[in-house]
Amino acid sequence: MFYIWLIIILVLGIIEISTTNLVSIWFVLSGLLSLGISFLTDNVFIQFLVFVVFGIIFMLLTKPFIDKMKTKENARTNLDRIIGMKGIVKETIPKDGVGVVKVDGKLWTSYSSTSEKIEEGTHVKVLKINSVKLEVEKWKE
């Protein structure tokens, strides 16, 4: 059974190396444990049980740590700087529709965050950029 565990470890290791995400590293480690257990007992059921149980345990113990390492802050672009800026409605934004807002010298297709009508000439605040449209709300002084 030693050679079977060695083959399993090598195959899982190759899979792990060929991917960019952590896919099978936990089972490579539990395969190493099962390989060690194969020297102590010839019972295949015990070896397989160690492989599965410890693979799951390793995954559950390390996943939060790995997720924390993988999360990164989204890189802000120059375009993001208009979020929070004051703009002026150049073409009325109808209820549940789109209009035009001028922000930072540029015209944007915009819609209201509250689905209310915003009249031309009204000052608005940019809440977020959704594709090529701005979500805006009336400016509150």
Structure overview:
The chain has 141 residues and is α+β, with helices and mostly antiparallel strands. It has 2 domains: 69 residues, no CATH class; 61 residues, Beta Barrel (OB fold (Dihydrolipoamide Acetyltransferase, E2P)), CATH 2.40.50.140. The protein is built from 3 helices and 5 strands, in the order αααβββββ. The chain has a 5-stranded mixed barrel with strand order 1-2-3-5-4. Helix 1 runs antiparallel to helix 2 and helix 2 packs antiparallel against helix 3. The radius of gyration is 28 Å and the shape is rod-shaped. It starts with a helix and ends with a strand. The mean pLDDT is 89.
Write the layout of secondary structure elements.
Elements: H1 2-18, H2 25-40, H3 44-70, E1 86-91, E2 98-103, E3 106-112, E4 123-130, E5 133-138
Parallel strand pairs: 3-5
Antiparallel strand pairs: 1-2, 1-4, 2-3, 4-5
Q: What distinguishing features does this structure have?
A:
alpha+beta, OB fold (Dihydrolipoamide Acetyltransferase, E2P), 2 domains, five-stranded mixed beta barrel
Order of H and E elements: HHHEEEEE
List unreliable stretches of 5+ residues: none
Q: Whole-number radius of gyration?
A: 28 Å
Provide the structure class.
alpha+beta
How is the main sheet built? Answer: 5 strands, mixed, barrel
Query: Would you report the number of β strands?
Result: 5
Quickly count the helices: 3
Indicate the mean pLDDT.
89
Oligomer: single chain
Concise description?
This protein is α+β, with helices and mostly antiparallel strands and 141 residues long. The chain has helices at 2-18, 25-40, 44-70; strands at residues 86-91, 98-103, 106-112, 123-130, 133-138.
